[in-house]
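User: Sequence in, structure out. Go.
Assistant: Echoing your sequence, followed by the structure tokens.
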Amino acid sequence: MSPDPLITLLTDFGTSDYFVGALKGVILATNPKAQILDLTHDIRPHDVEEAAFTLLAASDSFPAGTIHVAVVDPGVGSSRRPIAVFSGDQAFVGPDNGLFSYILERNDEAKVFHLTNERYFRQPVSSTFHGRDIFAPVAAALSLGIGPEKLGEEITGACRLRPLTPERMKNGRVRGRVIHIDRFGNCITNFTPADVTTNRGIRLVIRGKAIRSIRQFFADDHDRQKIFAIWGSAGFLEIAAKNTSAAKILKAKRGDRVIIT
């Protein structure tokens, strides 16, 4: 680890309560040199899928050695496992509820450890606040160079969400879905450039609406189409509308089917 490790925090806690401050306090009590960055605390309450997408989209922007603490944990206190995921040169700490699905899907060589060594937990462990009592102190321990084998045993079979990979149909079409809708109303699909062989002649169908325009940037208005597709910064094909919400126009929601014909 670097002498001044970077630890990010992603939660659904918001900022009006003491929860985020408590996470930071526990980390700094163990490692005062840690650098803590708030990735976001505005994940919708209990929305594991939104958190999983946000982690995937943001994590590759961070330097080697970054430790990501992610706490969106509707099963806190239950039998769900606390885990640490080591993917590439970064670590992810949080509940085994699908939160790290997309990170694991993108890296078959990632390793997962079940966090069982209570020596690295804050005591006593609250049944309602594992973010403070398990995940934050484990992240702090990692930032000090504690190896994963000291935290628990390596495991397989971590909880997974529905895969990101679109389905190729017998008729040549590709069936995907909306995996995220951002605050601008852009509908982010699970299509990557590997799923689209050309931008010419492409046709997307969502909620009965056919979209034939792919633009290079949002302000491009060469074809006068209200709804269009665009390659977004997270590497996925997005459905957008200029200066307004495509999701509202289409009445779209996460999980809606999108077909490439």
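User: And one key feature?
Assistant: Residues 86 and 111 are 5 Å apart (CA to CA).
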